[in-house]
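Hey, I was hoping to borrow your eyes for a little while. I've dropped the whole record in just underneath, so have a look:

——
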Amino acid sequence: MNLAETMADKSPQARLLKPGSLLRDEDGNILDARSSVTLITSGSTKIVVDTGLPGEEGIIKDRLFDLGLRPQDVDLVVNTHDHPDHCGNNHLFTQAEFLSMGRDLVKEGDVIAPGVWIMETPGHSLDSLSVVCESSTRIVMAGDAIPILGNYIKWAPPRIHVDREKAMKSMSKIVEVADVVVPGHGCPFFVKEK
């Protein structure tokens, strides 16, 4: 094995456990919101970013089981913000430490595992954060800083936001860093400029 292969083996890996979704009525009002749930493995550390809506426990457990894991094998849970559709299954992860802007005062640039760090991305909420995974491509779990692909394509802030200017700055910050974005409510997408 050469050095490049050794380094590749040590880079963190991100896997989508469950894509998010967003259902709106004809006026654009949200009828149903379910967050994306992502597993990051960095060395022996297992991190779940967002835990979905209550009632989705079975999906998450099944997907973890498919990967040879159980919820109690997860070391860290990061909630991109404290809305119920993003932290509704925190109770599954009984052995995990929980990180969020509001709970443990994580901040911009904090490394939570080798190759995995925090990016402050307020706007949707004041406590919003994103998680950056330095894998073979740089993947950003954006939460509702970029809720769906449409926000990126139309370059529009989340419909629900507490500060439009901060929301737009956070989107710019994510796109500047990311090769791939995992939006809060959709499937991963590549950033075109990259």
Q: What stands out?
A: Confidence is low (pLDDT under 50) at residues 1-8. The CA atoms of residues 124 and 160 lie 6 Å apart.
